[in-house]
Every structure is written in structure tokens, then in C-alpha cells.
């Protein structure tokens, strides 16, 4: 026998042995609830939810899912907490903020990360013209990217001196967009403001005033002059280009390569009452995530589905840009960005503790978390909210399903390689626009490493 | 003959003029989402809505076929599972196939029905409170004076101001998903009731207090019990004015409902309009215009319906 045959024999023997001790999987999970309502916001990264429904992955698990668009992130969270929604598309910071009691208080659990990246920072035409005046490099047909916030400095100063500080929009106080916009501004030496005991709009000491606007209203709000720029997910940056009212200057992929963006959240009460349903929903989402990253054709199909009025609803061409891996900066300048939306590659759907900790550090940096806490506290919160065990359970079921019913899993199948080998913390990384290093195991050291931001007195 | 022609031609002519004016005006207004919707684009949006409704019905039929296929597949797989359990020496528990319920989207007509049922429920609450209170106010001057400040302060309050409070109270008392009514339905209905009850109340009070003294004296002379007085003398006399109040209430209720649906995302026509707006697609403006026309048409029909009801039920001296 050659070595390959021996290896296969050994593998199948091990699998057989393991299955003797494994519970009899590959049966329909005994879901507690067959009718589930999930909330989402009209953004392209609700894609795994939509695909899981349209490609009938939810139905395969015996669950029928109603997807209800919500008008803004606050209403979405409130309705999940009140039980009107069983779960929802959430900003990665929402479950964390809710669990530590910042904003609506509720213990939210995360079993699945919907995607990485997917946001852009857009400024109005007027601001872009002014930036070009001060930074000749930006006048090129194809300026070099990533563009930091440095060229924005003179614009900010001028507006400050005129007594009318620059205003920018983001989608929610605990949204990734808020933290990314602040990170970008601070990396360019511009102070985005603190949250304090008396100021929960985060504008204390700010050189640029940040405020909240729901994503679909961003372009209109900028067009009306209420804000001069914003950070939001797609399709609202490309929509500004299509409408001719603004220029995206950077994406969050440039700010932090492969940063966590949205998650799938449920309340702790719901999860405890419906454990099998939770696992089944996670299974369907994992399949959808993998399908989305499986091929460019799938992305094209996804753009068509998302353009339906009951989902994202924006025109298909606008959605297709970023979904299929290009991003249009100034009109006519399209850069290839294959990782603009990442749903499954690089284990994007796995809920890593280090991702949760990053958001907590930024909440502390800007004052949303008011007191110092030891590193262990940050890790504890991440443990309380992120549940990779449920992800692993769902994946184990999928691996067994693939083995049991190969016909159904012909295009998208699962093996042990789909699970990352990790203790929940990614290795330290310096893939940030300012080159700083982030290590999830040392949050306090990280918070103290910034020029702009609150400092902690814990080591 | 000439009169029928006139009653038909004049509105038709002015409608034609209106459409032409609309078409011309729309062409000159550019918005961020495209030109203001013309009659043409509104009509094609309406046709799209019909197509979507038909597609949704088709999708429901397909669902039934698909569940049948799933059931068959489930049986086949049961066999495979049984064999697998045998091979592994484990016990096999057969599990029955439970088809997940259908979860498509509501069609446009269904959203209209949803809005209508909400407004009727709210309207019923409004008249259940407004008419008795109005009768009381009309019959008894003390009650009228006592309630006056409350009525005058609550009357001008916008539904949008009531919404947060009502939502909080209702969601703390009932939770969706239980058998029974959904939170959003109850919230919308209550907000409709709160805003539309005032015209009914005020008009009923006015109608009751203006019942002719002679009629009231008959009641006193015959020493009729209060309920006979109310139902045989006061109500029939006050009915036309009560109906006027109810008609106004229904009209206000319909307006309030659309606003409440938009703000609180309660399913119905208002939410439909808001969702179209959020989409920001090239279809959006046409869809919104088509919805506006639907909303107006329904409001008109509701009003006419009430008028018809009123004519059937009241005694009009003019008819003799």
C-alpha cells in the first residue's frame, strides 16, 4: 500500500472511531421555534442573512425566517430586546455596549460574525476640492491610497477659524464606523472628541463634530449640507458617487485590514430558551457566508438579490461595485478591492475574542467606558458576549451533514479545515493605517499607545 | 342627459388638466434620486406592484410543491439514517417531518388590508370612548366643564409625540409572538384612537346638547328611564352630528396611521412608503407616488363609506 492509501485508511479509521463516541448528528436539529423573525438594516453586509433565506439554507434546517428591515440601529436593538425580533444583523460594538450597560442594557450573545470590512469614508465635493488644494498628490488621476486624514487638517482648521466646525456623520455611537472614523481622524492628528459624564454626544474637545445619521439617509444629509462627510457601509458611499455629491476617500480596509464589522446577535434569554434554533441559524449563516466568498459569480448573483426592494433595494449597479470587488473613489476612478467585503475568507465568520476586545479598547479610548479596568475585565466581557462554542457546534454539525448528505453539500461542503485553530485571540497585528500594533491580550497597553485618546492607569 | 354629461365631463376635464400640469411640473424638478415622478412613471410603478403581487402568489404555490418534495426527501433520508445507526450499533429514533411555515413578504394589497384593519380597530376604540363620553358631556354641563381642559390640551397633540410613550407601555404589557395581537398592531391602533377620538367626542357632545328642549321635555313628562331617553330621544336626534364627528375621526385616524407606521416601522402602507424611501433606488420615487395616490384614494373611499352609512341610518328631515 502506498502512503496515500495508508493515510486515507488511518483517517477513515479515526473518523469511524470518533463517530462511535459522537452523538448521532446529521439529523435535523430539534429546533424549538420554526418561525423566526430577524431584523436587518439596509446595508450590503446583511448578505449572509438574505442569502441564507433565498438559497433556502434556513429552510433546510426546518426554520422559516422573516427578514424585517429596521429604520435605524436603535430601533433594531430595542426590538430584539423586547422580543419582537428573535435576532438581528448588529454592529459588532452593539452586543458589547449593551452587555456592559452603555445605551440600552441587555445581555446579547454573538455566535457568528457576518463580515469584515465593507465601510468607506466619504466627503462632500466641496471638501474634496479643498483637500486637493492643500495636497497636490491628491490631484492625480489615480492618487495613491490609502489616504490618511492629514490632507483634511487645513480644511478642519479653516472651518474652526470661521466658527463653524466641520461635521461628519456616523451611524451609531457604538458602531464600527464611529471607531473607524475616529481612528482615521486621530491618526491624521485631528481630535474627534471625547464622551464624558455630561456629554454623551462625544464632542468634548472635538475638532470635528461627529453625529449619528441612519445609513440610508447619509447621502441626502450630506447633500443638504448638514454634514460634510460620513463613514458608513455600502452601498451608501457608492451611492454618493452615483448621485455626484461626494467622493469616498478611504475604506475601513485601509484603516485596518480585515476588521470585524457586523455580527449576528441574539439576547441571552432567547438563546437559553432556543439553543437548537440558535445553532441551526448559525449553521445556515455559515453556509451562506461560504457561498458568498466561493466565487465572483456568486457575488454577482448576491448583488441582484440584494437589490430587491424588500432587502437593500438600492440599484443593482450601485451594489455590484463593492460586492464584486471594485470600489469607485472619485467618479471614474475604480480601484480593484477584492477584499472590500469578506464574508468567509480568513475565518471572517468566526467570533474571535480579540475582535471584541478591540472595540472595548476604543470605547475606553474615547470615554464611552468611563473607568479603568484590568486586562482581565476586557477578556471577561469578550467571553461573556462572544460564543465561539456555538460556532464550533454548528460547524461540527455541518461537517457531519456534508459527510451524510454529500448531494446537498456538493458546491459548498465543510471539512475540519473550515475551523480555525485558535484560542480565540488572533496573533498581534500591525495592519493599521498608522502602523500601530494591536495585541488583544494586552488591551490596556494598546489604549495607552495612542497619541490622541484617554489614557488608563492600569498596567 | 345634459346634467349627467356635465357632472361627468367637468371632473374629467379638470382631472385631465391636473395630469397635464403634473406631468409638466414633474419634468422640471430634479432630485437626488432622479426626476420627480410623472404620471407615466407612477403608472409603471403601479404595474410593477401588480407584477410583484402576482409573483408573490406564485411563490406561495411553489412553496407548497417544495414542501412536498422536502417531505419525500425526508423519508428517503430516514432510511439512510436507519442504516447508518445500524452500522454504528446505535438506536435510531425516527423523526417526523415538520414543514416550516411560509415566510414570504406581504403583498401590496395585504399591506393595504393591514393598514385598514389597524385603522378600524383604532377607530372602534375611539368611538367606544368618544361617544359615551360625548353623550355624558352633552347631557351634563358639569361633566362638560370638568373635561374641557383635558380635551383641549390633548386634542392638538400629534401622533408622533404619543408614539414613544404608547410603544413603551404596550411592549411592557404584551410581547409579540404570543397568541394574540402583535405589539406593533396594538401600538398603531392606540395611537390612532388617541388622536382621532376628539372630533367624535366634541361633535357628540355638541349634538347631544343641541337636542330640542321639546323632545327632552317629553321624556321628562313621561318619566322615561335614562336609557330610554338616551336611545330613543337623544341619540336619534344627535345622530347626524355624531356621524359627522365619526367621519372626521376616521379621516384623521387614517392620516395618523400612515405617520405612525412610518415612524415606528409598524407593517402597513406607511412602512411601505418609508421602506421605498430607504431603498433610494431609481424606482423609489414612482413607488412612493403610487402609494400616495393609494393612500388618498382609500381615504376618499373611507369618507364616502361613512357618508353612505350615515344616510342609511339617520332620519333626515329634508327627505320628509
CATH architecture of the largest domain in chain A: 3-Layer(aba) Sandwich
Question: Which descriptor suits the 3D outline of chain A?
Answer: globular
* Cα-atom radius of gyration of chain B: 28 Å
| Continuous helix count of chain A | 19
Brief summary:
By secondary structure, chain A is an alpha/beta fold.
Structural description of this entry:
The complex is a heterodimer of chains A (459) and B (320). Chain A is an alpha/beta fold. Chain A has 2 domains: 26-116 and 259-418, Periplasmic binding protein-like II (D-Maltodextrin-Binding Protein, domain 2), CATH 3.40.190; 119-258, Periplasmic binding protein-like II (D-Maltodextrin-Binding Protein, domain 2, 3-Layer(aba) Sandwich), CATH 3.40.190.10. Chain A contains 19 helices and 13 strands. Chain A has helices spanning 3-21, 47-54, 57-60, 73-82, 93-100, 125-134, 153-161, 176-187, 218-223, 236-243, 252-255, 268-273, 275-294, 296-306, 316-323, 353-365, 375-385, 388-404, 443-447, and strands at 35-40, 64-69, 87-91, 108-117, 119-124, 166-170, 208-212, 229-233, 246-251, 260-267, 326-328, 334-336, 341-342. Chain A has a 6-stranded mixed sheet with strand order 2-1-3-10-4-13, sandwiched between helices. Chain A has a 5-stranded mixed sheet with strand order 7-6-8-5-9, with helices on both faces. In chain A, strands 11-12 form a two-stranded antiparallel ribbon. In chain A, helix 5 (93-100) crosses helix 17 (375-385), helix 13 (275-294) crosses helix 14 (296-306) and helix 16 (353-365) packs across helix 17. The longest helix of chain A has 20 residues, at 275-294. Chain A is globular. In chain B, a hairpin with a 2-residue loop joins strand 1 and strand 2. Chain B folds into 2 domains: 62-104, no CATH class; 108-312, MetI-like (MetI-like fold). The radius of gyration of chain B is 28 Å and the shape is extended. Chain B has a two-stranded antiparallel ribbon with strand order 1-2. Chain B contains 10 helices and 2 strands; from the N terminus they run αββααααααααα. Chain B starts with a helix and ends in a 7-residue tail after the last helix. Helices cover 79% and strands 1% of the residues of chain B. Chain B has helices spanning 2-28, 39-87, 108-139, 141-154, 159-173, 183-209, 213-221, 226-264, 269-279, 284-313; strands at 30-31, 34-35. In chain B, helix 2 (39-87) crosses helix 10, helix 5 (159-173) crosses helix 6 and helix 9 runs antiparallel to helix 10 (284-313). The chains are: A alpha/beta (459), B mainly alpha (320). At the A-B interface, strand 2 and helix 9 of A face helix 2 and helix 9 of B.
Amino acid at each position: 500500500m502506498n502512503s496515500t492509501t495508508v493515510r486515507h485508511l488511518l483517517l477513515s479509521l479515526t473518523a469511524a472511531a470518533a463517530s462511535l463516541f459522537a452523538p448521532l448528528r446529521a439529523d435535523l436539529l430539534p429546533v424549538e421555534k420554526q418561525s423566526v423573525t430577524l431584523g436587518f438594516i439596509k446595508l450590503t453586509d446583511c448578505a449572509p442573512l438574505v442569502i441564507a433565506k433565498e438559497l433556502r439554507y434556513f429552510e433546510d434546517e426546518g426554520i422559516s425566517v422573516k427578514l424585517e428591515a429596521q429604520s435605524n440601529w436603535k430601533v433594531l436593538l430595542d426590538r430584539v430586546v423586547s422580543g419582537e425580533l428573535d435576532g438581528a444583523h448588529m454592529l459588532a460594538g452593539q452586543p458589547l455596549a449593551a452587555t456592559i450597560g452603555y445605551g440600552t442594557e441587555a445581555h446579547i450573545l454573538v455566535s457568528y460574525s457576518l463580515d469584515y470590512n465593507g465601510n468607506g469614508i466619504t466627503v462632500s465635493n466641496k471638501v474634496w476640492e479643498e483637500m486637493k488644494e492643500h495636497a497636490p498628490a491628491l490631484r492625480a488621476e489615480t492618487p495613491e491610497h490609502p489616504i490618511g486624514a492629514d490632507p483634511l487638517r487645513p480644511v478642519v482648521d479653516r472651518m474652526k477659524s470661521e466658527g463653524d466646525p466641520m461635521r461628519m456623520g456616523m451611524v451609531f455611537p457604538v458602531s464600527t464606523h464611529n471607531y473607524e472614523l475616529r481612528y482615521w481622524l486621530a491618526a491624521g492628528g485631528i481630535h474627534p472628541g471625547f464622551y464624558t459624564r455630561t456629554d454623551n454626544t462625544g464632542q468634548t474637545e472635538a475638532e470635528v463634530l461627529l453625529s449619528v445619521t441612519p445609513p440610508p439617509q447619509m447621502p441626502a444629509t450630506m447633500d443638504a449640507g448638514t454634514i460634510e462627510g460620513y463613514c458608513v457601509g455600502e452601498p451608501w458611499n457608492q451611492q454618493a458617487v452615483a448621485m455626484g455629491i461626494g467622493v469616498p476617500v478611504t475604506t475601513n480596509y485601509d484603516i485596518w485590514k480585515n476588521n470585524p464589522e457586523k455580527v449576528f446577535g441574539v439576547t441571552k434569554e432567547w438563546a437559553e430558551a432556543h439553543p437548537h434554533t440558535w445553532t441551526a441559524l448559525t449553521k445556515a449563516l455559515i453556509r451562506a457566508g461560504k457561498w458568498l466568498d466561493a466565487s465572483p459569480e456568486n457575488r454577482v448573483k448576491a448583488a441582484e438579490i440584494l437589490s430587491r426592494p424588500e432587502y437593500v433595494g438600492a440599484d443593482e449597479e450601485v451594489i455590484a461595485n463593492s460586492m464584486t470587488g471594485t470600489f469607485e473613489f472619485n467618479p471614474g476612478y475604480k480601484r480593484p478591492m477584492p477584499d472590500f467585503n469578506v464574508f468567509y475568507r480568513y475565518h471572517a465568520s468566526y467570533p474571535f475574542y480579540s475582535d471584541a476586545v478591540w472595540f472595548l479598547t476604543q470605547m475606553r479610548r474615547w470615554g464611552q467606558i468611563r473607568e479603568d479596568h484590568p486586562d482581565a475585565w476586557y477578556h471577561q466581557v469578550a467571553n461573556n458576549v462572544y460564543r465561539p462554542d456555538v460556532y464550533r457546534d454548528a460547524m461540527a454539525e455541518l461537517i457531519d451533514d456534508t459527510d451524510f448528505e454529500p448531494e446537498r453539500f456538493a458546491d459548498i461542503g465543510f471539512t475540519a479545515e473550515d475551523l480555525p485553530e485558535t484560542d480565540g485571540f488572533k496573533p498581534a497585528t500591525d495592519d493599521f493605517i498608522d502602523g500601530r500594533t494591536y495585541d488583544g491580550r494586552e488591551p490596556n497597553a494598546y489604549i495607552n499607545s495612542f497619541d490622541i485618546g484617554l489614557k488608563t492607569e492600569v498596567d | 342627459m345634459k346634467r349627467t354629461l356635465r357632472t361627468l365631463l367637468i371632473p374629467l376635464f379638470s382631472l385631465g388638466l391636473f395630469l397635464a400640469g403634473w406631468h409638466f411640473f414633474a419634468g422640471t424638478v430634479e432630485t437626488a434620486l432622479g426626476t420627480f415622478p410623472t404620471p407615466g412613471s407612477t403608472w409603471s410603478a403601479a404595474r410593477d406592484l401588480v407584477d410583484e403581487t402576482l409573483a408573490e402568489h406564485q411563490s406561495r404555490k411553489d412553496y407548497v410543491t417544495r414542501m412536498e418534495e422536502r417531505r419525500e426527501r425526508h423519508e428517503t433520508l430516514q432510511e439512510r439514517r436507519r442504516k447508518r445507526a445500524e452500522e454504528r450499533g446505535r438506536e435510531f429514533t425516527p423523526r417526523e417531518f415538520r414543514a416550516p411555515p411560509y415566510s414570504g413578504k406581504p403583498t401590496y394589497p395585504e399591506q393595504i388590508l393591514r393598514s385598514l384593519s389597524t385603522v378600524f380597530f383604532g377607530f372602534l376604540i375611539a368611538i367606544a370612548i368618544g361617544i359615551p363620553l360625548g353623550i355624558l358631556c352633552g347631557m351634563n354641563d358639569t361633566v362638560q366643564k370638568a373635561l374641557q381642559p383635558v380635551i383641549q390640551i390633548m386634542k392638538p397633540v400629534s401622533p408622533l409625540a404619543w408614539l414613544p410613550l404608547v410603544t413603551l407601555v404596550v411592549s411592557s404589557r404584551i410581547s409579540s409572538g404570543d397568541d394574540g395581537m402583535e405589539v406593533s398592531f396594538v401600538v398603531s391602533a392606540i395611537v390612532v384612537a388617541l388622536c382621532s377620538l376628539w372630533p367624535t367626542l366634541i361633535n357628540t357632545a355638541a349634538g347631544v346638547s343641541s337636542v330640542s328642549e321639546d323632545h327632552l321635555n317629553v321624556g321628562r313628562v313621561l318619566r322615561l328611564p335614562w336609557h330610554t331617553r338616551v336611545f330613543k330621544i337623544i341619540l336619534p336626534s344627535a345622530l347626524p352630528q355624531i356621524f359627522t364627528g365619526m367621519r372626521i375621526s376616521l379621516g384623521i385616524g387614517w392620516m395618523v396611521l400612515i405617520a405612525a407606521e412610518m415612524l415606528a416601522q409598524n407593517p402597513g402602507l406607511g412602512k411601505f412608503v418609508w421602506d421605498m424611501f430607504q431603498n433610494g433606488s431609481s424606482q423609489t420615487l414612482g413607488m412612493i407616488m403610487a402609494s400616495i395616490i393609494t393612500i388618498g384614494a382609500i381615504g376618499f373611499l373611507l369618507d364616502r363609506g361613512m357618508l353612505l352609512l350615515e344616510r342609511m341610518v339617520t332620519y333626515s328631515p329634508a327627505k320628509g
